[in-house]
Design a protein that fits this description.
ten-stranded mixed sheet; 48% strand; mainly beta; five-stranded mixed sheet
Length: 312
Amino acid sequence: MRDLVSCFNENAVNVSYSSCSSYSNNTCISPSLVPSIQNAVTCLYRIILSTGKHLFITVNWCKNPITGQGLSINFSGGGGGGDDDDHNNTSTSFKLNTNSRLFRKKKGNKVIESNNSKIEVCWDLSTARYGTGPEPLEGFYVVVTVDSDIGLVLGNLAEEIVTKKLKNGSRVAKSSLVSRKEHFSGNTLYSTKAQFCDTGTSHDILIRCSGENEGLKHPVLSVSIDKKTVIRIKRLQWNFRGNQTIFVDGLLVDLMWDVHDWFFNPSSSGYAVFMFRTRSGMDSRLWLEEKLLQKEQDRIEFSLLIYACKNS
């Protein structure tokens, strides 16, 4: 019997975890190449509380030459089983600029009210260590408590505060990462990492458009995961939009690219869009026109969007 990869798509590419023995942001990059700069990362989480109530938490990390590192958290939803109350409810925001001259409080907590819920944000970024991007790598924590539930835990230093809250009777809510958006600016080389499911491993992703200064007649787009090339698109001016199905950790992942503005809209900011989206093998269509957050759906598919600005 043929396996799932060959049965589903003759052109599908399988990426196995064992194909790469080293994992770092620069593992697939030649030392002579410098990746574009990551300026912002936005993650959307769905939280289901022990009461059955659910809400959405959007965490945005940004990096600006003027204001420095910044963090903002947005809370929306808060429905308890109604038909369409998820995104119609008012949203509440929490903002923290860790480098601001007016606000250097890199450790603390704040209680806010949102949709009849008491939300507490506890954070400690005083010892946070950053790479080239806006998101801290280690030495920090951000913990969000909604009513009596621990809704979201970020960072490697959260154990002490989570343990304290559990001893005080807090429960752990169910959380899922729905989407992740990353903004880059610079050249046409983009390096990032992605975990396509909650129980999966973290994979290195490298996107590169070559040919402009490398002697090639036509630009070529290549995408690699853990050093393995999963797509290679030649004559990019004619193939500026497209999609390909790949398999990562046994998951179906639809990979879409749109680099139209790189070639045909030079007066704009020159953004290209790359999207990785997981889906069930039972879904026959590439992009399902369904509501993102159906209450009947037990598992929400994950998507990674990369907005790539090519500076002229």
